[in-house]
What we know:
Layout: E1 2-4, E2 7-8, H1 16-24, E3 31-38, H2 44-54, E4 62-67
Parallel strand pairs: 1-3, 2-3, 3-4
Amino acid sequence: MCVVVPSFNNNANFRIEYNLNSIFTQNYSNFKVVVVNDASNDKSEYVYHRYFDFYAIDPEHYVYIENIFKKNSL
């Protein structure tokens, strides 16, 4: 199994759809995407959820995690 973790903070304007298309249009089907919203205050969350709904992405293939407070990077 392949796990992809695209974390983000305020990237609604950075072509989220291209990022997700590169994952969800693969022929390989044994994967899980773990999307981590690190307390964005733009519309990133909306863009991600709109993508999942529009393309009817199977919830078995992704997990959406939302941090309420921004985590410090190591």
